[in-house]
Amino acid sequence: MTSVEPAHAAPHAREKAPPVTAAKPARPVRPARSVRKNRDWLHGLLMSTPAVAGLIAFVGIPFGYAVVLSFYNVRLGSPLAPTFFGLEQYRRLFTDPDLSGPFLRALLNNLTFAVVVVPVQTALALGLAILLNRKLKAIGLFRSLFFMPVVFPMALVAVIWRLILARSDQGMLNSALHAVSFGNWGAFDWLGDSATAMASIIVLSIWQGVGFQMVILLAGLQQIPGELYEAADLDRASRWQQFRHITLPGIRGTLVFVAMLTSVLSFRVFDQVYVLVKGGGLNEDAGRTVMYQAVTTAFDQNNVGQAAAITVVFFLIVVALTLIQRRVVRPDNED
Amino acid sequence: MSSTNRRHRRTACTGLALLPLVALAACGGGSGTDASADAGSGKGTISVWAHQGQKSEDAAVQAAVKSFNSSQSDIKVELKLIPGNDYTKTITATSASELPDVMEFDGPTMANFVYNKKLAPVDDYVSAKTMSNATDASKSQGAIGGKHYGLGMYDSGLGIYGNKKLLDAAGVKYPTSLSDDWTAEQFTAALKALKAKDSDGKTLDIQEGNGLATEWGTYGFAPVVWSAGGSLIKGDKAEGALDTPAVVSALKTVQSWKTYVDPNTDGNAFAKDRVALSWVGHWMYPTYGKALGDDLVVLPLPDFGNGPKTGQGSWAWGIGADTKNAKAAGAFMDYLLNDANVTAMTTANGAPPATKTALAASPLYKEGGPLQLFADQLAKPCGDSDITKSCVAVTRPVTAGYPTITAKFSEALNSIYGGADPKSALEKAARAIDQDFSDNAGYKIP
């Protein structure tokens, strides 16, 4: 309380104020409340300033420029003047079959990725968290083992998975399947086949990311008081009933947060696609995501205008999806 | 007026990343000020940028600079090495006025730097001797509109390395020179014959680990397009050059090889005798030569009808457009391109020397040397547009639109290799390239 130094001037002003309005007993309450409200508003504004300033500087302004750039034909390092293009970039994205094909495919890939990864990864993280939420010897070791992939940068993880998913019979996955199936499994092109390219990326991403969600859920689980379980035991509740009626409600907020985080992160898929394509063998069409499309358009083909249009469309879609998601799943404490 | 206009534009363009709106308005002042360097006094300090590559290459550049500085007292060279991965981006992001007096650049990026006025012609500043000693292939890579903007110390070439032991065991007859080259059908037949003798049926390496949707894809497989009588771009159009029926069927053949290709994830497929043939460039010789010794044979890429072809071109040196001391810059380039330095550099990286005298003296590339084939190929340069049946070494398109060409072609190649229909993939790439050229007024160098 005492740390709010700058606010000291205000109480003094307020203490002086009552005598003036003393004639009307009902009034003093209201001004005091409204001044307090104003002060809250001011403090709120002050405290959010750093975040808002950062948001404006690093998201708002660049996005504004992206919108402007998307209406121009702008090239990196071109001596030509940028020309006004109107809606041409957007027209190409949606109606030119050569461009809209890959773009819509990238959008679809992103959606597929999110639709699969969000529930699967959240459920898996929950399962792991429950598994690791017990008093075992060396539990710390197990927890670190599951958390390990998160520590490695995605680029490194993707390079390693390139060896696992390699299409020859020397690829680790193929040779493992070969051994397990008593030699009935031949070489399969996991990354090059359009049916499994996205699936491979999904598996690799879940493996890399699940530890992070697990740690957050683990923290949530440890907030649930043990007495609840003891009481449930006395009531002879089964394991499933305990999970259903104590564990899940206990971590509902955490779960919603984790699901939200996962879905936002899952729209950003880029590193693994970029590394696997450059490393050879990835079916580019089947694995392409919107971020990949935008980055290669801007920096491999120097076509900034087009890339800006892609990001604008993508931004709008992600914002819309996030709003819908917030409507559908809402943490308890917000009601 | 033009100089203020230029400076204004430059400042604004530099700010592009931060203030696109200002840049939108200001970059427009594209008046045709010719990029021409000031000759200067020929004395004083000049700055030099080079890409940081293999350790041995860096040492060769550093040694050349050191001996240049101690060989005379008029000019002092300050060398800056920039990591190879970021090198081109660094030049792209640096305004012309901040670029050094002498700089190295990768061959196919040159046209772009000429286009945005970062390079000046070197003709007036390097000596006639240096110019005439450069190989024709090196000169054609560095020329735009009759002026030379870059000269290389070394060149590059593609071929197929063969494992003599495995080829003989499978009873495969292979070419010994350019003149008795394999046709595409013979090459396919050879793969088939090798497959019969191979435990896993994979007999070819095409450096798949580098990725095909990359510059390797374009450099390594544009020769298939050229050899089929097509071209990445003709005039300013890819349609009708890149998607001709001959090119389509050639790439269909390449597609059919996938079953024979070892993914080579460990990079050792050829050196460890897993495959008999490796489709790659001169740079693998040090590794392969050591691993196979006398069993190593070097063959040209197969002929798809228009004669065997190879890619060509590598890092080159040029003079910054805004230098105030082009005379000194030229003197340094003369020194860099003398026999001693070129030989030291090509010994360091195993590349074919790009000067006539050093090439003739090279133990690897001279008559009878193990890599003579690469020298033979480079002795028949096509330039980037005049691709006839008899020439062999083709320069990648010298145009500022090259980034789009290589992106679209390699993308098409990657999808064809992955199973897409070659005709529609190539037509799509051609349309995308043409669209890009028309958006940019043909990338005409102003």
Overview of the structural elements:
The complex is a heterodimer of chains A (335) and B (446). Chain A is mostly helical. In chain A, 71% of the residues lie in helices and 1% in strands. Chain A contains 16 helices and 2 strands. Chain A has a two-stranded antiparallel sheet. The N terminus of chain A is likely disordered. By secondary structure, chain B is of the alpha/beta class. Chain B has 18 helices and 14 strands. In chain B, the strands form 4 sheets. A 5-stranded mixed sheet of chain B has the order 2-1-3-12-4. A 4-stranded mixed sheet of chain B has the order 8-9-7-10. In chain B, a hairpin with a 2-residue loop joins strand 5 and strand 6. Chain B is globular. The N terminus of chain B is likely disordered.
- Note the total helix count of chain B: 18
Structural class of chain A: mainly alpha
Task: Give the total of beta strands of chain B.
Answer: 14
Portion in beta strands of chain B: 5-15%
Class from secondary-structure proportions of chain B = alpha/beta
Outline of chain A: flat
List low-pLDDT spans of chain A.
Answer: 1-24
Number of strands of chain A: 2
Q: Greatest chain-chain interface?
A: A-B, 39 and 46 residues
Radius of gyration of chain A, in Å, reads 27 Å
Main location (chain A): membrane
Biased composition (Low complexity) (chain A): 18-29
Keywords (chain A): Cell membrane, Membrane, Sugar transport, Transmembrane, Transmembrane helix, Transport
Protein name (chain A): Multiple sugar transport system permease protein
